Amino acid sequence: MSADRPKRPVGLFLGALALLSFPWLPFVSFSILGSANLAAYYALVAISLVVLTGWVGQISLGHAGIVGVGAYVTGHVVNGWGVTFPVNLLWAGAAGAFVAAVLGLVAVRVRGLYLAVATLIFSWTAVEFLFRQDWVTHNSSISVAAFGEPGTFPYFDFTSRRTFFYAAWATVVAAAYLMANLRDSKSGRAFFAVRGSEVAAASMGISVVRTKLTAFAVSGALAGMAGNLLIVRDQVVSPDAFKVEVSLFFLAIAVVGGLSSLGGAVAAAILFASLSELFFRLEFLSGWLEVVPPLLLTAVLLLYRGGLAAIPAALRRRFGGPYDAVAGRLLQLGTQVRQSLAARLPARASSETPAEGTGARVGLVGGLWERLPEPVRQLTSKLPGLGGRTPVAIGRLDLAGVLAGMQATAPDESHESAAEGSTTGDEVVAGWQSLRLPRRELPAAREDRRPLIEVTGVTVRFGGLVAANDVSLTVREHEIVGLIGPNGAGKTTTFNSIAGLNVPAAGQVRIFDQDVTQWSVDERARLGVGRTFQAIQLLPQLSVFDNLLVATHLQNPSGFVAHLFVGTSTLRAERAAREQVRRVARLLELEDQLDRIVADLPFGVLRMVELARALVSGAPLIMLDEPASGLDSTETERLASILRVVRDLGVTLLLIEHDVQMVTSVSDYMYVLDYGTLLAEGTPAVVQRDPKVIAAYLGEAPAEDQDSLAGVGA
User: What is the number of helices (H) and of strands (E) in the chain?
Assistant: First the structure.
């Protein structure tokens, strides 16, 4: 996604236009039309796997079982209740979502190979037990009724392959479009964050459990609807259609297409269906079809990991200008089609629909969200969610507003906006070096400032090892507090107890005057805590802009259904989020890096991106885990200066750091740990001259003339 504007699913509209004419082409026979309908079935399953595995990183080898659930439920609602197609798609989708969500409960406890095995067991159980029970299979065949009455409108006879072609591919196009909307929204960014780093996602207030369950439910709904297409197309199903190897076949389609690409999933589905038609027509290839999927999968894994989705980029690199000219013309045509269709829709209720260049994507059916009943919108605005604590933050820092009001030291200097439409009027977002920031006047007595973190008697044990023993410390508003100590002193253990990564055996942690000792990481983040990591936890496959955009999760009030249909609330929230990202990027001088992929950046820039992500979150309290680790002396000095600016912007900082000189130069107050016990506390000047601290670092009693830790590292 570009920093200037996000991706638009123009290809979906172009594909829809091509599909309209396909059944009427002279070479399209009855058999080819059947293969095209099979491709729609494959595409819907592949899209469901892209969402779950490509976007969230949850491996499923049991999707054939979920497809089977959708097929058999369709049989029950058709034969038992007379619900016709396409209405029964909703029943199949709901059944698939429910089963997948139950399966997702396993995913929140296991991961990787264990999750793959768990889904494999589900698939085997479904085929060998569930789908052989009479109460399930007695509706395995249906008679597809026409929709409507003959001679009236609407009337559709879905026993006609041509009619079913349009219905099936309309379902695929709608699913792909909604998933594209979801991908480019707050919910989609949460998916990618969980895939990249669950710890980092939680630190930005994203509930990993809820996100995984939501992904399973969405994926299951699509797989259930695919089962509906299968039984409506064939009018009969058998357990053999959902065997374990079918799940592997579905996964192969998604991988060959490009595991995170919706367009690639559709292209691979068409490829595999076309191969079925080809092998059916050529007798000498009979019996070899089952060999093709593993061969294609092997080729992709070994030679071309991007799959079919990577072909456009490869063509652009190889052919350059001619390719860009053709692609540009197609893009222009797609934009014209989209605008023409959008112009025929009723006007939005809000007059704040953004123009091109503001960075917020205009949805084709965005007005549908505004037409939902208010109780439904209120309910869905809280999705994904399963209850639990909803901490009330003390108030997120409006950093964009703070920066917008700042004056640069060189007011006559001209500044261009980070992107078209990103600023208005004479607004200037100054870099940190040019900001004129008045030093905040703090009360003379530290005790007069409000405590944001209060750690009281915290003890952490790992087996028989006491890593932190009766540690107490306080971080007060508008100050930088340093936590230092030799290797193995218990700094990280204490830090993680505050952050929520471990639960103390004794003691209490209070943040913003709330007891958070038993709270999870994401709950503390929602309260108003941001953080960085010693081992950088960015999303390597995404751009800097998208990495920063993920951090706006808690400031974005739009809900899940609004993300699907691109409602006005989504557009408004996206504009605000992108503006926040641009301002922080300008502050930390990262503007030139916004479109670069994180994996390609040098280590020093990555440290700045992590700090920027914490600032974008708007958290008034940020915990820095060895932010100078891996930096050279010049980068460390620059970081120290930036931290002082951040403090003066109104952010309170707690940092642990091995570079003693750096931490003493920026801290207003310091704590020193040794062997898990609090050794000393005070201002940097006091701590530097403490004999016990000097002895802990030097390993011996201090000499009479030794009065400073400056320059000492550990």
Answer: 28, 10
Q: Which residues pair with 529 in a beta bridge?
A: 621
Compute the distance between CA of residue 601 and CA of residue 231 in angstroms, rounded to an integer.
50
What gap in Å lies between CA 419 and CA 164, rounded to an integer? 45
Distance CA 284, CA 334 (A): 42
- pLDDT tens readout for residues 80-116: 888 888 889 999 999 999 999 999 998 788 878 888 8
From CA 637, how far away is CA 626, in angstroms rounded? 14
Q: What is the mean pLDDT of residues 420-438?
A: 54
Is residue 206 within 8 A of residue 193, CB to CB? The reply is: yes
Pair 591, 389: CB distance under 8 Å: no
Residue 146: Cβ-neighbour burial (10 angstroms; 0-12, 13-18, 19+): middle
- 632-689 pLDDT tens trace: 989 999 999 999 999 988 899 999 988 888 999 999 999 999 988 999 999 999 998 8
What helix, strand, coil percent values describe the chain, rounded to 5? Answer: 55, 10, 35
Residue 620, Cβ density class (10 Å: 0-12 exposed, 13-18 middle, ≥19 buried): buried
Q: In what order do the strands lie in the sheet with 514-515?
A: 465-476, 451-462, 506-511, 514-515
487 contacts 524 by C-beta, under 8 angstroms = no
Please give the domain boundaries of the chain with CATH numbers for all domains: 10-343 (no CATH), 448-528+620-698 (3.40.50.300)
Give alpha helix (H) positions in 22-112.
30-49, 63-81, 88-107
Of residues 121, 140, 27, 25, the one with CA closest to residue 79: 140
Residues 556 and 575: their CA atoms lie apart, in Å, by 10
Question: For 51, which DSSP code?
Answer: I
Q: Which two tokens stand for residue 254?
A: 């998604």
Report the DSSP beta bridge partners of residue 680. 672
510 sits in which H/E element? strand 506-511
Q: Is the pLDDT of residue 446 over 50?
A: yes
Q: Closest by alpha carbon to 594, among 638, 544, 524?
A: 544
How far apart (Å, rounded) are the C-alpha atoms in residues 59 and 330? 35
For the stretch 216-244, pLDDT in tens is 999 999 999 999 999 999 999 999 999 99
Looking at per-residue pLDDT, the higher value among 287 and 186 belongs to 186
Pairing of strands 621-625, 652-656: parallel
Distance CA 375, CA 387 (A): 17
pTM for the predicted model, two decimal places: 0.82
Query: Amino acid identity, residue 11?
Result: G
pLDDT digits (tens, 9 = 90+) for 56-81: 999 999 999 999 999 999 999 999 88
Instruction: Return the exposure string of 318-335: e unless at least 16 CB atoms fall within 10 Å of the residue's CB, then b.
Output: eeeeebeeeeeeeeeebe
Taking the C-alpha atoms of residue 491 and residue 467, their distance in angstroms, rounded to an integer, is 9
HSE of 74, CA atoms in CB hemisphere, 13 A: 38
Alpha helical stretches, state H, 129-240: 134-137, 161-183, 186-196, 198-203, 208-234
Q: Are 195 and 56 in contact (CB under 8 A)?
A: yes
